[in-house]
UniProtKB/TrEMBL annotation:
Protein name, per record: Rve domain-containing protein
Species for this entry: Cephalotus follicularis
Species classification: Eukaryota, Viridiplantae, Streptophyta, Embryophyta, Tracheophyta
Length: 128
């Protein structure tokens, strides 16, 4: 209760009975599963709407084995020791193999394999 309801009786306070309150709580407990199911449906619908909105604006990057790519130099050297005038992209590198869609193993043009895998968002296709 808020302080005003102590001095001025509201409808909620006037019509409160313990039995009605208990009955209402029991009804809500019976409907908890249904409320949870409705919440799951709402969350799923929201996620699908957000996914459709995002996917409308995403441009696919069809990279294949053997393509030449540039890699983001900021991601390659996360220590931040690079200066602000350093190039943003380094390479070219060759895609050695596709680990899964969007994830690639790279090698230098000399054939030396790069130790870690790279995501497509950190790569840019190199055109000669």
């Amino acid at each position: 209760m808020i302080l005003v309801e102590i001095g001025v009786q509201s409808l909620r306070v006037v019509h409160f009975t313990e039995d009605n309150n208990e009955e209402g709580l029991r009804c809500i407990i019976d409907l908890v599963e249904e409320l949870r199911d409705k919440a799951v449906i709402r969350v799923t619908a929201y996620q699908q709407r957000v996914g459709r909105y995002y996917n409308k604006r995403v441009s696919p990057r069809p990279l294949r084995q053997g393509d030449l790519v540039l890699r983001n130099s900021v991601v390659a050297d996360p220590t931040g020791t690079r200066g602000k005038l350093a190039p943003a992209w380094e390479g070219p590198y060759k895609i050695k193999r596709v680990l899964r869609p969007g994830t690639f193993k790279l090698e230098t043009l000399g054939g030396r394999e790069i130790s870690r895998a790279w995501k497509a968002e950190h790569l840019r296709k190199y055109y000669q």
